[in-house]
Amino acid sequence: MDRKGIERSFMITEKTYNIGVEATMDVIGGKWKPIILCNLRYASLRPSDLKRKIPNISQKNADSTT
């Protein structure tokens, strides 16, 4: 499929993104979010279980997932 000439932009709040990946990374970016999401992909976990699976995460970050 030829995408030449197709122009897309996404706007979340007042920031404009040229591609969806850019917007996604802005939403899920950060140090812990991708790691937490990876650990939650198959089942929901209690913060204490999450802390056990991710030893370096602070209790505050583990608790903020609920």
TrEMBL record:
Residues 19-66 form the HTH hxlR-type domain. Pfam families: HxlR. InterPro entries: HTH_HxlR (IPR002577), WH-like_DNA-bd_sf (IPR036388), WH_DNA-bd_sf (IPR036390). Gene3D superfamilies: Winged helix-like DNA-binding domain superfamily/Winged helix DNA-binding domain. This is HTH hxlR-type domain-containing protein.
